[in-house]
Specification:
The protein has about 190 residues and is mainly beta. Helix content is about 10%, strand content about 35%. The strands form four sheets. Strands 5-2-1-6-7 form a five-stranded antiparallel β-sheet, with no helix packed on it. A four-stranded antiparallel β-sheet has the order 8-9-10-13, with no helix packed on it. The chain has a two-stranded antiparallel sheet with strand order 3-4.
Length: about 190
């Protein structure tokens, strides 16, 4: 059977698109907090005409935390944490090793697995994970929580067994710790 031109174009386009990666959910395999790099495993298999195959673990992937030149919000990452893996339109190697200036790509590859970026925090709906109350700005870590809302700021420490660690306070001028507040729930209300 002879293929018609639209069929040939469709096959060629599908073959080309099989090697274009945009984004995919994944799982963190390992994390280097000093270099801010992870190894990640894509969480959805690649579909082929002959079946599906698992993607390889992608290594040396930069982690994108909210930050500026002067500040950053980070949190610990561990094996099994969910993430979104993005794939750059161009090669990232020269950009990542530069000091913030515009660079030449240095390679013609596009949307390659080796040009991945990790954004932590994407989990399947059925998986356990940290959830907020949907009303307040919340920062949670294990048994600690800071909640900021219309009624003020709430700090929660400890767990149901009554363990209550100190909240360390520091001198705003020197940054030197000078004491703590012991308590389970502390509420601060604005005027």
């Amino acid at each position: 059977m002879r293929l018609k031109m639209p069929d040939v174009l469709k096959i060629a386009f599908q073959s080309f698109m099989n090697n274009v990666h945009t984004c995919i959910p994944g799982t963190i395999e390992s994390y280097d907090p000093v270099k801010k790099k992870v190894s990640v495993k894509p969480g959805i298999k690649k579909e082929l005409d002959t079946g599906s195959i698992s993607y390889p673990v992608i290594t040396d992937v930069p982690v994108m935390f909210p930050c500026t030149k002067d500040s950053i919000i980070t949190f610990p990452l561990k094996k099994g944490d969910g993430c979104l893996i993005l794939f750059s339109e161009t090669c990232l190697e020269r950009y990542l090793s530069a000091a913030g200036e515009e660079v030449e790509a240095g390679d013609k590859r596009k949307f390659a697995l080796s040009d991945a970026i990790c954004i932590p925090g994407l989990f399947p709906f059925g998986s356990p994970g940290s959830v907020g109350d949907g009303i307040n700005l919340q920062v949670k870590y294990k048994n600690y929580e800071v909640s900021i809302g219309e009624l003020g700021i709430t700090l929660k420490t400890g767990d149901a067994s009554g363990w209550q660690p100190n909240i360390l306070t520091t001198d705003p001028m020197t940054g030197i710790p000078h004491g703590g507040i012991t308590g389970g729930v502390i509420k601060l209300k604005g005027a």
